[in-house]
Amino acid sequence: YDNGGASNRAVDAEGLFIGAEVVITLDNASVSVYNEVAQLSGVKDEDVEIQSDKVNEIVAKVLTIADYAANYKDYANMYLAFENVEPVQEYAAANASMSFTDGTNTLPVFNNARWTAGASVKIGKQKGTLYGFGTSYKGTAQLCNNQVKELAAFAPSCTLSDDSLTFAATGSEAQTITAVLGAGYTLGTATADAAWVTVLAIENGILVSVQDNTGDERTATIS
Fold first, then answer.
1. What is the pLDDT along the chain (223 residues), one digit of tens a residue?
2. Please, which residues have CB within 8 angstroms of residue 95's CB and are 6 or more apart in sequence?
3. How distant, in Å, are the alpha carbons of 94, 118, 127 from that of 122?
4. How many CB atoms are closer than 10 A to CB 193?
5. pTM
């Protein structure tokens, strides 16, 4: 049970991820049941130690929403996958709860706010495979996401007209990399890792200009 203590510290400070092996000292813990699911509570920060050199491959069990809803107690805390589903909402912030459907049945999904804090992650209404851990709330089956990649199939793509630009030896006139984004998206900010490059996010792309060349070949990366 994440009470703002041990697992928050592990995720935020040490990068806990699915498949990582951890050692939990149970001196402070107790076992309880919440909404028909067994859990540990009372674990403190110092009780959790991540074994960074030990990683287990976690293979998701593929289910249908109907099968999961009917037998959710059998899949408590298991890593699950639901194929060919799509968000019910047209667009939704990834750190909010939402629902997914296979066209017949609907599955509520609770997305852990920790991994999207400040990220402004969105998803689009397109079909893909949904991943997460089985849980329930007041007798209703739901899924819990812990990592952004569990929603990767639903992230609208952004295509760019160029992945590199070349400027003439005496050229500094601005060039534009056009960008095509999914509906509801706009470009945020653009930055470069070199002071001699100026970049600006504009309505339909990224405007790139350079200072007059020195005669030497130079390379910069734009983000």
1. 765 555 555 555 556 677 888 888 888 888 888 767 778 888 777 788 888 788 888 899 999 999 999 999 899 889 999 999 998 876 555 456 678 999 999 999 876 655 554 445 567 778 899 998 898 888 889 998 766 677 778 877 788 899 999 988 777 789 999 998 876 677 888 999 999 999 999 988 999 999 877 778 889 999 8
2. 111, 112, 113, 115, 116, 117, 119, 121
3. 5, 12, 15
4. 10
5. 0.64
